Amino acid sequence: MGDKVKLKLTRDVFTDLSTTGKLTVDDEYFSFTLEDTDRKMEAGGEKVYGKTCIPRGTYDVVLNFSNRYQKVMPQVMDVPGFEGIRIHPGNAAKDTDGCILIGSTRSTDFVGNSVVTFDRLIGILEDAYDRQEPITLEIS
Fold this sequence. Notes:
Oligomer: single chain
Number of strands: 10
Shape: globular
Mean pLDDT: 96
Structural class: mainly beta
Number of helices: 1
Strand order of the largest sheet: 1-2-3-7-6-5-4-10
């Protein structure tokens, strides 16, 4: 790893319920992702609360304590029109309000093995945090 950790989320499957994609860590495949429906907010699309994925772009990611989950988790910072966006375990769109779910398997509107996959990711990010390396997330 270099002097920063680069997460990249590439969205590739779009349904009426969810958006799934692939996550890389420093250009290496890491997991599948699941988000809410893509309403193309960066192109002027309208947000539907709890049912819209965040706009494409590049964001800083910090590790901080989540009151909701009662543990340290990655938070995606400064997302236009959203607050409290995190990367966390979950399987389907009902498990997210704009957040990014990760898993090692996927099918239509679903990612699986999310807790194990999340635990692997948080380990990587905590190591980077301990080395004081910035973490970024690029979404395309």
